[in-house]
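[Structure tokenization] protein backbone as discrete codes

[Encoding] learned vocabulary of local backbone shapes

[Begin record] amino acids and matching fold tokens:

___
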Amino acid sequence: MPRNNFDIHEAFAEKTVAVVLDHLKEIRQKRPKSDFILLDDKNFMVDDLSVVGSLISLNLINNKGMRCERLIAPESFSVTIEELRKQ
């Protein structure tokens, strides 16, 4: 049980990440032959998703192939799950 305000925010961040990863897992189970990527709100590919304290850490690959890390509050977190088209 959360003891203080920080614990509540940290628990919210952990729950937010867990919900996204669980949903991605469900989609992959429904379509096992498809590949999916996560995109942030700037259309950068999400390489890793984790929690750092009360923030969500996104390790991103931008459109030029450069890597960066972005820390955001769970309240402003959004990602798109996109299916990759096979050619």
